[in-house]
């Protein structure tokens, strides 16, 4: 393990995690909203926001799937040291990190009829996030919202699975946005 | 600060609760199981709400707790002090100043904003529990969207009483999918469940967390010929004169004297400070209280 892995975590874990979670919760509750998160600096190629989402939500109880572009020794060591989360294939993942091209279509669990919560949350690393592009409707949105999504068809298909389906957290730099399974994309 | 971790719970517990909250927001009305912890208060005193509050609070928050609308009951005061001590958050009794509001059995009268969070204490999260005691069965009923039994219960109300007699914990359907127990709020509050704020529900003993995102569709179950009605005592508040607020009825003497007053104490006192006086009220400052 390189010593780089030991740095870049939350300086004050309870406080930093509380602030980060609050932002993540707000974007999940209001699809289309973009927030910035601070407090952690993961090794490249993991984005700052992607790393902070992992620090906030992952621990030894949540298997993480790393897509090839994020599956480097530095990233693995950093996640292991700071969260203790085990690594796994897509079929067992609680969280998955990667670009949309890598994650789309992989066999992630979408939950079961009796436990729709047993599904993967995808942390989709993007180049940029902005409030333009696809139109969003659904819970958390007053009328409509817009968000720069990597595509539309896959998210439309995902919403049709409701109450099953995947939830998405988009990350770019220090920004986060989210798209839960309930959002209708057009 | 105290010698407790921020907001009392350890970090791994908070992460587990936070993951459940995100799933709850992603599947509105679905009860997410979580590993509820023992809290330094008995079950029934809001252990679920306290755990949810502990997971969402940040040091910048201003926290308000109400019990049946009142800020000054034992339960509300002890929970408010608990987070004052363990999280170092500012506390308030004013609805407009609070960023996180924990509530037992009421929704504040004042309309909540998008930057506020309402945390409910829930005793029995399963709306079908009194109709079907088996968790295996109720889980199957939710998965199959089999809610006929609930309509039978409401129908039996009508056949026995001539109207839907359920007056609190009135079942709602969220986003056209899950039937949800809004916790034992009076049905007067049901229309307010469609709001701009994030609503989180925590049931400690029953180990369930669920949520309603802002502006989500929340429909109270009813029949075409017996539509849902948000009812309240047909009276105005005797202290502040409000005609639009939910009222508590108090017996005030041995001769059967009665008084109706707002259950939301902040709403009532704000109105009285603004100069509103009800039928039995005196202008604020002149009474003994």
Describe the structure.
The complex is a heterodimer of chains A (186) and B (289). Chain A has helices spanning 13-29, 48-57, 73-83, 100-103, 153-160, and strands spanning 35-36, 64-66, 95-99, 121-125, 134-137, 145-147, 167-172, 175-179, 184-185. Chain A is of the alpha/beta class. Chain A has a single domain, classed as Bacterial phosphonate metabolism protein PhnH (Rossmann fold, 3-Layer(aba) Sandwich), CATH 3.40.50. The mean pLDDT of chain A is 95. Chain B folds into three domains: 11-127 and 169-219, Bacterial phosphonate metabolism protein PhnH (Rossmann fold, 3-Layer(aba) Sandwich); 131-167, no CATH class; 231-280, Ribosomal Protein L24e, Chain: T. In chain B, 25% of the residues lie in helices and 17% in strands. Chain B has helices at residues 11-26, 47-56, 74-86, 135-143, 148-161, 265-273, and strands at 32-33, 62-67, 90-91, 100-104, 117-121, 172-174, 178-180, 198-203, 208-212, 218-220, 247-251, 258-262. In chain B, the strands form three sheets. Chain B has a seven-stranded mixed beta sheet. Classes of the chains: A alpha/beta (186), B alpha/beta (289).
């Amino acid at each position: 393990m390189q010593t780089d892995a030991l740095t870049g975590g939350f300086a004050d874990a309870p406080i930093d995690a509380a602030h980060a979670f609050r932002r993540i919760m707000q974007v999940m509750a209001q699809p289309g909203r973009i927030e910035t998160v601070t407090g952690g600096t993961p090794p490249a190629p993991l984005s700052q926001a992607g790393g902070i989402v992992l620090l906030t939500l992952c621990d030894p109880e949540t298997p993480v799937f790393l897509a090839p572009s994020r599956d480097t020794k530095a990233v693995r060591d950093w996640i292991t040291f700071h969260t203790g989360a085990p690594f796994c294939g897509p079929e067992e993942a609680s969280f998955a990190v990667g670009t949309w091209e890598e994650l789309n279509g992989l066999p992630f669990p979408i939950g079961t009829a009796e436990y729709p919560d047993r599904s993967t949350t995808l942390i989709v690393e993007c180049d940029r996030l902005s409030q333009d592009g696809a139109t969003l409707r659904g819970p958390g949105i007053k009328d409509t919202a817009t968000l720069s999504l990597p595509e539309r068809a896959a998210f439309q298909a995902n919403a049709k699975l409701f109450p099953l389906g995947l939830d998405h957290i988009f990350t770019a730099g220090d920004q986060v946005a989210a798209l839960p399974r309930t959002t209708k994309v057009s | 600060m105290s010698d407790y971790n921020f907001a009392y719970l350890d970090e791994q517990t908070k992460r587990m609760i936070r993951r459940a909250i995100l799933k709850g927001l992603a599947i509105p009305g679905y009860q997410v199981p979580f590993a509820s912890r023992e809290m330094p208060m008995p079950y029934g005193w809001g252990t679920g709400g306290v755990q949810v509050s502990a997971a969402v609070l940040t040091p910048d928050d201003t926290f308000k707790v109400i019990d049946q609308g009142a800020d000054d009951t034992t339960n509300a005061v002890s929970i408010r002090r608990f987070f004052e001590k363990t999280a170092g958050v500012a506390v308030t009794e004013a609805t407009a100043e609070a960023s996180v509001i924990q509530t037992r059995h009421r929704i504040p009268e004042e309309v909540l904003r998008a930057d506020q969070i309402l945390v409910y204490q829930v005793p029995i999260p399963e709306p079908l529990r009194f109709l079907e005691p088996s968790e295996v069965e109720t889980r199957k009923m939710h998965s199959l969207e089999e809610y006929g039994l609930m309509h039978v219960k409401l129908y039996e109300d009508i056949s026995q009483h001539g109207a839907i007699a359920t007056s609190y914990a009135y079942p709602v359907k969220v986003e056209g999918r899950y039937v949800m127990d809004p916790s034992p709020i009076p049905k007067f509050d049901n229309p307010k469940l469609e709001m701009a704020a994030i609503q989180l529900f925590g049931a400690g003993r029953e180990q369930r967390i669920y949520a309603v995102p802002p502006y989500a569709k929340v429909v109270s179950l009813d029949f075409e010929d017996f539509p849902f009605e948000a009812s309240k005592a047909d009276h105005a508040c005797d202290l502040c004169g409000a005609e639009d607020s939910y009222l508590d009825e108090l017996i005030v003497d041995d001769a059967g004297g009665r008084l109706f007053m707002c259950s939301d104490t902040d709403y009532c006192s704000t109105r009285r400070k603004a100069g509103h006086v009800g039928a039995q009220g005196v202008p604020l400052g002149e009474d003994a209280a």
